[in-house]
């Protein structure tokens, strides 16, 4: 009995001991104390916690910090417990790593501000330098380059020694150079080497780093730094010309896309279509509707939303175009200026209709992942959405040209617009062709709306902001000539972007308008004038 | 000539003469909707002067709904002075002369007791002479450039010292910003705000070469060059921030370009004065995480009053996703102040209400008290919010107390000696140096 | 000579139009000033201002009809001339404020003090004098139109090309005037006017006087337009409209005719703008917006292109509809109605209200009055030239 008793006591004691071994450190250890600071909802406490967690050496540190960075770290203000929601949706206790089923209601996200975000980035940079994921290592090296914290030098050097990937190695070398440049006890020759490495990098960030070199550095170093700065600057100035050209191409592609539908309805058919902008807007709203449906029903398809939206926008805008042609425009052929009046009225109606249906505020159209972000080409940044829009515009243009050139409908369209009566007597159903041509122009405007939804507001006013520019492009290029529209759009785009840095956005635009006015004096029928008898008609 | 005329009149067929008379009568009859209609005695009419079409509809439609909602709520409580309130809605269509015309119509024809309306200074400036001439009351709910204090206007939006300066202070202290880009749309509010900020920054020891001021036109959509300019300016080695006074429509493409060119808030934070919950509803905010806005109200602020307001607003609009924003709160405050002033004066007579308004206090939605000051501006707290991934703001800083709105900026040469005081001095531009009413004097 | 032009140019319809406008110009101010507010026939002051605005729009419509209806020049930028005239008047009114501005600066307008300007820009000199401002009201739009037209007509820019570059012109001016550096008050424009020629702009008497003046200007503009279109010059203009090349081959210097009428029309638009500004109390760059110019063209089309009475009537009808629909329960739907009005007028009344009325009325009138004196019939035929496609 006694033995029994003591056995039980011993078992109990053992259990208690075991529990204390497991639990007590978990409650009282320095790491857990640091983590608990996250629950205070005070930015300076959070900052302290970041530093302590980062230097703790605990394997959970990088999990916690990256969760904090992504807004997946939450705290219970009552129990001071901190939880990480992992990217797969599982929840763990940040201090212990133990799985947790469900968060109670008063758990709130740990808040961060920009200062803390920078601290997290710097801390993660140190922690993930040796990560197995190459992308993480690269990001870490880059953030060390920016923060250039002295105490990371050994880590950077050991990472550099182990690294096999060429681009990461390069990034690490630059990070090391950045640290050395600002290390007070580094030798002058080391610093000069560091400047050479940074100079070779040659981008804005290198420039920022070199500009940071203070006057307290040895004269030799500051001199080398300033010569590196001027060499980077002259290099960047050259690249900025390339960049302007790229921006010009990109603006030109947007202008072309907006104008290309008008080049058909206005340029080919002679209808002064003031509702053209609204067709663009309808295309953008189609994109919005498609994305909304995808978001609620098939979120996995989101990246394909634009691909789905393009044909739909074409159909929606095209169908509305056909209806407009059948009910309004067809009564007005031969009275081009009156189409202006009717289509202006129509544009008011369409705008207000959209405003009534979707509300007056902007609608959110998201960028699919393949249209977000940018890549570096030399020293210029090329954003994916602009690049895709340029490709898309050229593709639309090519398809349109091919269609007009090689299909039966295209042939009929050309025939009808060149000589309606002759075409009719050859057995072409001219009124059907008219409707289809107008539908085609409107449909292409709808497609333009899909692309423009990626860079501009999706609001009832969307079309208004493009209509004037579109008319300028078509007239500048020469009415009735698709190639003229292409050349016109890119010329205006590039000229605008080269003027903008010199004259500013407003004066640049005014200068372009004045140039168009003067140019029309020189060539009263645009860049590529139609010749022959059709001209006077 | 004369003989010809008389001859014409004489030969004018009877029918034509009849037609002419008919036309005249018709013209007058058609104008009858404008002849002074007798206001029904059992209601008090409230004018709502917000654009429902045109470029400003995007912002103003919500404010029209807000006033209708507030009137609805007030009527449920029994109205004011025992009478129901009745809204008179007109659409000035984002057209400035039409604003003046509609204001005149509201006051003369509909006999409204007060008007809530306008957005952007030009619309306010356009209606100002009308309100002065016909002596009525306008509540203006949007942040503006200041430099104005009128007897007939009550400014419930922020003056520059209630938005711009605290935001810059925050960036200097918290983010240690040393280099500034002041980016704005080219109109009066950004111009003046930037002028004030420039003077303020220089007084804090910022070198002129560390300030870049840049203007773009309305509705600007191609931000590539501007954003890369900001990037270049930010690479000078000092911490850089952008203070944005970019107007409504141009914001979406601006933020999209920022996100795509990879400018993160941790590198170059952007603090905006015209971007609120409503504007963010049109953008995917994930790339904008951490960019800032300075306002006197955020939907995310947790107070019982705010939660109640949001719940009732969403129920009223039958849209559980409908957001609230700062100008809405300004209307909420302005409306409640007007109700209190009417009750205090015991009448809706504009003169009495104008005299009753200064000194009126009403709780705002963020737990503070808004007080109408003698210069017709109100006290407000200032919050700095960071954009979150869900289109809301996370308040990262707030002023310790309430900030009183300055009608005249202390930073500008032309206005530093001026104050507005409609209680004691009965003057909107009292010069404290010369102790005279009437600006700088000569 | 002068009486001859007048008798020839003023047919019965024109005379009745003048009489109606004159009657309005006198009766409305009288009823406003003399009758008590309670009276059925009392016209409230805000209506005087509103109708005054319409009259200014009617002058603008006349100026557009003169070039579009009779010479085939479709200007989508006529709002620019209107706005320039308005700015010239606005600058005079700004200078009249003197030290009564909020800053109390005796010389500089408020917005300049506001932006720390220390002296008046050179182009503001002289605007403190009414005669100078009045001259500028005619000169600035006229000069711009002359230069623009001289370039455009000489290089034979026609049709849509011309329409689009006029649009480019007004758009460029819009952007320019928005710039605060330009020195015209930027987006806020010019406002808060006090006096005109020493009279308070807000006083009822001044408003009535302005209304009367606007009506007078409308009559004068109308008479000038009639005189032009019924003269030999007018016949050449119509020839240019209907067959420009043929007219040129006949030996007429087409560009000179076009330039004259374009400049004249711009001056008229300038006068309209100058009368408009004191009545609405603000001038702002949005008057330059291309949409405004297009809308003005639409007034003409609604009323009847090529009929001067129609242009004026169109301006009244469309603007009255705008005023009417933007209030009350209809407010959210007014754009539908305005849009539908434009579409329906184009489809159902291609000649506009007056044009359609004329083509319905004319055969009946001729039938009824077949016994009327021969000289009158011949006068009518002469007028018929005014719009061959849409006979009077």
Automatic annotation (TrEMBL), chain B:
> InterPro entries this protein is in?
ABC_urea-bd_UrtA, Peripla_BP_I, TAT_signal
What CDD domains does the record point to? Answer: PBP1_FmdD-like (cd06355)
Is Signal among this UniProt entry's keywords? yes
Q: Which residues form a coiled coil?
A: none
Pfam families hit by this protein: Peripla_BP_5 (PF13433)
**Keyword set for this entry?**
Signal
TM regions (residue ranges): none
Which range is the signal sequence, renumbered to this chain? 1-39
Task: Identify this protein by name.
Answer: Branched-chain amino acid ABC transporter substrate-binding protein
The source organism is: Bradyrhizobium macuxiense
TrEMBL record, chain C:
**Where's it found, cell-wise?**
Cell membrane
Where are the membrane-spanning stretches? 12-35, 41-60, 67-89, 130-153, 160-178, 209-229, 256-277, 297-321, 333-354
Signal peptide range in chain numbering = none
Q: Which GO terms describe its cellular component?
A: plasma membrane
| Keyword Transmembrane helix in record | yes
The entry lists its GO molecular-function terms as: branched-chain amino acid transmembrane transporter activity
What is an example of a Pfam family matching this protein?
A: BPD_transp_2
Protein known as: Urea ABC transporter permease subunit UrtC
């Amino acid at each position: 009995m006694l033995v029994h008793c003591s056995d039980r006591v011993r078992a109990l004691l053992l259990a208690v001991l075991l529990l204390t071994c497991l639990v007590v450190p978990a409650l009282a250890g320095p790491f857990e104390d640091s983590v608990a600071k996250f629950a205070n909802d005070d930015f300076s406490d959070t900052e302290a916690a970041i530093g302590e967690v980062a230097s703790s050496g605990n394997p959970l540190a990088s999990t916690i910090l990256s969760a904090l960075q992504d807004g997946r770290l939450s705290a219970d203000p009552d129990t001071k417990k901190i939880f990480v929601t992992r990217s797969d949706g599982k929840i763990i206790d940040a201090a212990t790593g133990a799985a947790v089923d469900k968060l109670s209601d008063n758990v709130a996200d740990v808040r961060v501000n920009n200062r803390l975000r920078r601290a997290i980035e710097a801390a993660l940079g140190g922690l993930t330098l040796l990560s197995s994921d190459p992308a993480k290592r690269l990001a870490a090296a880059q953030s060390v380059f920016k923060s250039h914290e002295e105490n990371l030098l050994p880590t950077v050097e050991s990472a550099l020694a182990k690294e096999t990937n060429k681009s990461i190695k390069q990034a690490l070398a630059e990070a090391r150079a950045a640290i050395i440049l600002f290390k007070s006890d580094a030798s002058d020759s080391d610093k000069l080497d560091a400047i050479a490495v940074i100079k070779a990098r040659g981008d804005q960030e290198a420039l920022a780093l070199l500009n940071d070199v203070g006057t307290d550095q040895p004269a030799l170093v500051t001199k080398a730094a300033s010569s590196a700065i001027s060499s980077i600057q002259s290099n960047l100035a050259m690249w900025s010309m390339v960049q302007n050209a790229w921006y010009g191409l990109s603006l030109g592609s947007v202008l072309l896309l907006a104008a290309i539908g008008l080049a058909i309805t206005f340029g080919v058919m002679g209808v002064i279509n003031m509702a053209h902008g609204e067709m663009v807007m309808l295309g953008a709203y189609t994109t919005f509707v498609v994305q909304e449906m995808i978001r609620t029903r098939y979120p996995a398809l989101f990246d394909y939303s634009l691909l789905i939206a393009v044909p739909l926008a074409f159909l929606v805008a095209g169908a509305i175009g056909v209806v407009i042609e059948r009910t309004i425009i067809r009564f007005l052929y031969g009275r081009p200026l009156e189409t202006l009046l009717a289509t202006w009225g129509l544009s008011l109606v369409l705008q207000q209709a959209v405003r009534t249906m979707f509300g007056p505020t902007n609608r959110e159209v998201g960028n699919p992942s393949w249209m977000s972000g940018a890549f570096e080409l030399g020293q210029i940044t090329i954003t994916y959405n602009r690049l895709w829009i340029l490709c898309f515009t050229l593709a639309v243009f090519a398809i349109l040209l091919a269609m007009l050139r090689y299909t039966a409908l295209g042939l009929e369209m050309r025939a009808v617009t060149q000589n309606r009566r002759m075409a009719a007597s050859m057995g072409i159903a001219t009124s059907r062709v008219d409707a289809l041509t107008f539908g085609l122009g409107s449909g292409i405007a709808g497609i333009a709306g899909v692309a423009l939804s990626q860079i501009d507001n999706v609001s009832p006013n969307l079309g208004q902001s493009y209509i004037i520019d579109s008319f300028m492009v078509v007239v500048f290029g020469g009415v009735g000539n698709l190639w003229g529209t292409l050349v016109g759009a890119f010329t205006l785009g590039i000229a605008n972007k080269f003027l903008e840095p010199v004259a500013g956005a407003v004066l640049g635009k005014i200068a372009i308008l004045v140039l168009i006015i003067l140019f029309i004096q020189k060539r009263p029928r645009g860049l590529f004038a139609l010749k022959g008898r059709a001209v006077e008609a | 000539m004369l003989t010809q005329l008389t001859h014409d009149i004489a030969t004018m067929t009877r029918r034509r003469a009849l037609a002419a008379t008919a036309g005249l009568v018709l013209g007058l009859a058609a104008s009858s909707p404008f002849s002074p209609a007798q206001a029904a005695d059992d209601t008090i009419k409230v004018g709502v002067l917000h654009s429902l079409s045109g470029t400003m509809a995007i912002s103003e439609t919500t404010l029209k709904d807000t006033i209708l909602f507030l009137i609805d709520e007030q009527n449920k409580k029994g109205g004011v002075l025992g009478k129901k309130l009745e809204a008179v809605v007109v659409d000035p269509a984002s057209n400035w002369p039409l604003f003046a015309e509609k204001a005149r119509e509201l006051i003369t024809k509909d006999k409204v007791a007060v008007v809530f309306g306008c957005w952007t200074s030009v619309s306010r400036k356009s209606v100002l002479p009308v309100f002065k001439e016909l002596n009525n009351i306008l509540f203006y709910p949007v942040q503006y450039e200041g430099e104005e204090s009128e007897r007939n206007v009550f400014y419930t939006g922020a003056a520059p010292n209630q938005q711009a300066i605290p935001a810059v202070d925050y960036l200097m202290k918290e983010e240690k910003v040393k280099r500034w880009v002041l980016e704005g749309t080219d109109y009066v509010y950004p111009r003046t705000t930037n002028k004030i900020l420039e003077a303020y920054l220089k007084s804090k020891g910022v070198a002129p070469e560390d300030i870049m001021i840049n203007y773009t036109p309305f509705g600007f959509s191609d931000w590539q060059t501007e954003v890369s300019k900001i990037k270049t300016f930010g690479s000078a080695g000092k911490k850089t921030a952008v203070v944005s006074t970019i107007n409504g429509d141009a914001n979406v493409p601006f933020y999209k370009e920022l996100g795509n060119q990879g400018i993160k808030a941790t590198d170059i934070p952007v603090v905006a004065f015209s971007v609120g919950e409503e504007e963010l509803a049109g953008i995917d905010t994930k790339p904008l995480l951490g960019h800032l806005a300075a306002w006197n109200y955020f939907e995310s602020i947790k107070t019982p009053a705010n939660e109640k307001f949001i719940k009732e607003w969403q129920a009223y609009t039958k849209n559980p996703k409908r957001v609230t924003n700062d100008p809405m709160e300004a209307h909420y405050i302005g409306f409640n102040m007007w109700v209190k002033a009417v009750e205090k004066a015991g009448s809706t007579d504009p003169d009495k209400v104008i005299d009753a308004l200064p000194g009126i206090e009403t709780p705002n939605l963020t737990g503070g008290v808004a007080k109408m000051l003698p210069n017709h501006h109100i006290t407000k707290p200032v919050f700095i919010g960071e954009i979150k991934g869900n289109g809301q703001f996370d308040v990262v800083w707030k002023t310790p107390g309430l900030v009183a709105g300055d009608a005249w900026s202390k930073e500008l040469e032309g206005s530093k000696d001026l104050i507005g005081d409609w209680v004691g001095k009965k003057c909107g531009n009292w010069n404290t140096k010369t102790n005279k009413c009437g600006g700088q004097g000569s | 000579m002068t009486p001859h032009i007048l008798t020839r140019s003023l047919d019965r319809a024109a005379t009745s139009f003048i009489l109606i406008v004159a009657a309005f110009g006198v009766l409305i101010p009288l009823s406003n000033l003399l009758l008590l507010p309670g009276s059925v026939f009392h016209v409230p002051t805000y209506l005087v201002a509103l109708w005054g605005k319409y009259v200014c729009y009617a002058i603008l419509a006349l100026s557009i009809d003169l070039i579009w209806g009779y010479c085939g020049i479709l200007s989508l930028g006529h709002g620019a001339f209107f706005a320039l005239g308005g700015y010239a008047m606005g600058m005079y009114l700004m200078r009249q404020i003197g030290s009564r501005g909020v800053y109390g600066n005796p010389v500089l307008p408020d917005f300049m003090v506001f932006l720390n300007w220390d002296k008046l820009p050179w182009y503001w000199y002289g605007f403190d004098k009414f005669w100078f401002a009045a001259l500028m009201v005619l000169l600035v739009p006229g000069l711009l139109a002359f230069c623009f037209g001289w370039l455009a007509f000489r290089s034979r820019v026609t049709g849509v090309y011309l329409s689009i570059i006029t649009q480019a012109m007004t758009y460029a001016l819009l952007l320019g005037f928005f710039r605060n550096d330009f020195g015209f008050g930027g987006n806020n424009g010019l406002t808060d006017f006090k006096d005109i020629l020493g009279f308070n702009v807000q006083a009822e008497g001044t408003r009535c006087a302005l209304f009367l003046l606007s009506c007078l200007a409308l009559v004068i503009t109308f008479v000038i337009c009639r005189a032009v279109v019924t003269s030999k010059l007018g016949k050449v203009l119509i020839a240019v409209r209907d067959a420009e090349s043929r007219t040129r081959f006949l030996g007429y210097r087409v560009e000179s005719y076009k330039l004259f009428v374009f400049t004249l029309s711009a001056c008229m638009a300038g006068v309209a703008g100058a009368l408009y500004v004191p009545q609405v109390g603000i001038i702002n760059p949005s008057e330059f917006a291309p949409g405004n110019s297009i809308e003005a063209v639409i007034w003409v089309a609604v009323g009847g292109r090529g009929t001067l009475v129609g242009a004026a009537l169109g301006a009244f009808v469309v603007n009255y509809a705008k005023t009417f629909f933007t209030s009350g329960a209809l407010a959210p739907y007014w754009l539908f109605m305005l849009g539908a009005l434009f579409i329906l007028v184009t489809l159902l009344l291609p000649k506009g209200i007056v044009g359609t009325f004329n083509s319905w009325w004319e055969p009946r009138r001729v039938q009824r009055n077949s016994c009327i004196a021969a000289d009158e019939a011949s006068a009518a035929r002469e007028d018929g030239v005014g719009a061959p496609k849409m006979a009077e």
